[in-house]
Amino acid sequence: MTIRWSRVDYCGSGRYEGGPRLEGQPDLSINCESTTIDKPPQNGQVLQNLSGLDDNRATTHCTDPLTLYPFYHSSQLSLLRSLALCHLIRCFFTTDPTYLALVIKLCILLSRYQSAHPECCATPIISSGAASKSQLRRHPRSVHVSVNAFQQSVNLTEPDLATEFRDVAFESHTSGHRDYPSLLERRVNALEAGFSPTHNPPGLNHAIEHYEVALNLKQLHPDQHDLHTSLASALQTRHWQSIRLVGLGFALNHYNSAQALFPTSHVKHRASLYHLASSLFSRYKHLDELSDLESAIGIYRSLLDVDVGYPERDTLLYALANGLLIRFQRLGELEDLDLSIQYHNAALKLRAPGHHNRPRSLVACASARRNHFRVTGDVSVLDGAIGLDKAVLDLYSPRHPERYAALVGLANSLVARFQQSNNLDDLGVAIEHYEAALGLCPPGPIERSILLLYLAEALRVAYEKRGRVEDLETAFALLYAALDNSAKHHPVLLHIHGSLATCYFVQYDITQYVPHLQSAFAHRRAASACRSGGPSQQFQAAMQWVASAEIHNHSSALDAYRSALHALDRYVTTGCSVLTRHQIIKKAPGLAANAASCAVRQSQVTVAVELLEQGRALSWTHLARFRSSVDELRNGGNHERKLADNFERLSSQVRQTPDPPEVAHALHYWQLSKDWDELVEKIRQVEGFTRFLMPPLMDDLLEAARDGPVIIMNVALYSCDAIIVLQSGTPRHIPLRHLTLGDVGQLSTSFSEILKSTASSEGTARQRRLVAFLRQVWQLVVSPVVDALMGMEDTVPKGSRIWWCPTSKFTSLPLHAAGPYRRGEPNLSDLYISSYTPTLSALIRRRGRDTEASPVMKKFVAIGQPNPRGSRNRELHSVNIEMDVVRRLLPPSVSFTELHEDAATKEGALRALRQHSWVHLACHGKQDLGQPFNSCFAMRDGPVSLLDIIQLDLKETAFAFLSACHSAVGDEATPDEAIHLAAGMQFSGFRSVIGTMWSVDDESVHHMVSAVYKNLVEEGMDYRNAAKALNQAVKTVDRHKVTLEQRIVFIHIGA
Model pTM? Predict the structure, then answer.
């Protein structure tokens, strides 16, 4: 049957004969003459033979039947697809862009149809028949037409359509084709620009892959800069979306390559430098490496020196100000904060009213001022921040989407001013702004929960000031609403529990109703268990629990301390370097000592020892954890090796996650922490690793007392105690009732003042002061311990070795030298042979390597450096004498090597430490109080730092004599960490170390060295006799040549 179709005009009315026109239907502007066909053409038949096709006639055949069916009919869809193919062919042969535009419009129409009618599963237009697709790919114009169509499809956000055109364009050319690099670059540009990685990560991954291919093909091409920059940008984007630090590292490399391709004055060079700084800044946020932040700030400053228009000056000022603000938050240098405010002000001046970034600058200026206020307490600075917050608010209309953030920012500033001035008007206005913000809160539970928390906190404070019960009741209601609204993985959950705890404590103070107190502690416990808040916030929550438990003398106090120590351990784990971990540990001064005091007060002495071991010397614990435990696990079978690799991988990812976690990455962090915990549990199922990452138990710690008792001297906020650990049985507790934390601090201060009085005219007076001080230490600290030891004479006879394990301020006292110093009365050194150990575990680790009854002495090296190059210290004239003494006293059987003066370089010293089991170091020692890991021995060409030493991981080392100043004393901020050169030598492998607690006298030190080595040789050159040799030297050295201060400056550490 023959059917006659009439002419159709798509340019006319909103209706056509086939049915109602779809809303938004494109204007196709097609007029076709009527023709006769037997039936509508089938999809896929139009392009069977490109060379013989009359495309005008085919177009007519596809257009006329459109009037037969309504738009929603499936045949209508098939005809539209065929019509699009016809126009695509016209474009191939004529290169007329009009036809390409028609193709795109038709495809959009098809896409809308399929969205409205998903049941009609039509194939994409270019996929209509394998033969048709093959013909298109072989056509000489197919690449250029399809790439243009691809890019237009991307711009119109039609990903499926773009993918079809991309495949035709890209797959039709091999890598050897002359247009391949250009096509590849166009393809990835469109991929990256058109598809947000948030919605289409595979598209971004394809872009990265093809940028890399294009870069390889165009290594000598002038566009190489743009390819480096584009690839770096794509990698950085993927990093932001998925927290891939490897990708960020590659991005940094490509930005570096891009900026090197142009002279420094070229705009592309500056652009690449700017992006490089931004990437460094991103990496700093994850790795916390200060060098990245410093480099970014340096680049921003260098770009400011030359103004060539890109990046714009206000952008650079803004970026530099942010970098300085972050550095201030890291280092606490007020100069950085002042400069940040200065640069933010300069950027704000360049962003005049009407500038699109002016609100952002106003917010940044206000934030910097709030930080300044928190440090200085200067209310005028906070007033300036509030003025800026109000200016931001004035820029937004009542329904503007940014008004919400402006209201919250202003309210936060007003609350801060209230806390300073106690002006209730500020608090009242802040509450009004929070309430107004609730009506503008963005959709989603996260933002609302945070705002509810802010408002509840303000109302709780208002209740404390005004006494209106409805304020507290509303605060409770808001907090429970926020609690119900928060997912278990969101960081705000921790703060909600903390705020609820505070509200219950406030309520209990008024009612004295015990269930309110119990509810308060339940929420303190819940807050400290919220892993989602990140390690730092979880640690702070646990510390709040500790403080509350001590204030209320609550039964949960010991659990609170355990939680805090566990959280601190996790917090320290997030540190990406030993320096970062040390900064974290500074935030918990005395935590382990207070935890042990709590256990002692509850008559749990064994628990006290375990808690001290868990919370002290964390820097060394974490270093040992990765050096021993993980390595031992990896040395097992394939299963154990895989577990070790996965543990290191997950640990690295945890360290690279921002802390506290950003809202956008909260679920990622929560899942990562969950995976880490599950992996640790799997490792603990391996034989021999049941206590992996867990603190040692008392049964394991008893091994430390194998050769003599270990005496833990604990000073805490609530008590001072001595605990004697023996090889068997329960540790013995000795309360030091007449001693307080303040008393020990005063003893430490007095001793420092004695050491500072160095004038020769004060020599005799200082000697008298020192003796009086040592008597005081004996009476208050050491004598009660000696009395207890004398009562254990069967177990600890006179002359036995004892190990002191002091905490906090006790670490700065010369306990080994205490005594009555009266004729006929023995001093401590006359009764026992003293050694020190930072922890019981450190002593066990060194003893654990003993495999022989009398270890074989291998090689001895003496390293002497009297005059390091560039040093401001005076030359050490006794070093030469000291080296001669050591050489002369050693028996001929000892293999002796000497590094002296020019030979005593940094690399030479480190190499000698690796190659010798016995070491004597005679040189300047430097204690760095600010960064104790930078403490060092001064060599000819540079320092051998503590960081250098702990990286050695020495094997089969026995003894080290450190004849250098301050080699065995740590910093005052973290005395429990025992971060000093002697501890570093012990950690790196030396089992027995002699070091110094203060400065050494160059004129007399060789007498002590001579006496020690003489006694050591007589005892058979066994490192285990080093403590005895030192004890004898103190008693036998010529007292006319060596003062008391210089006789007791040396201490023994280790086995």
Answer: 0.70
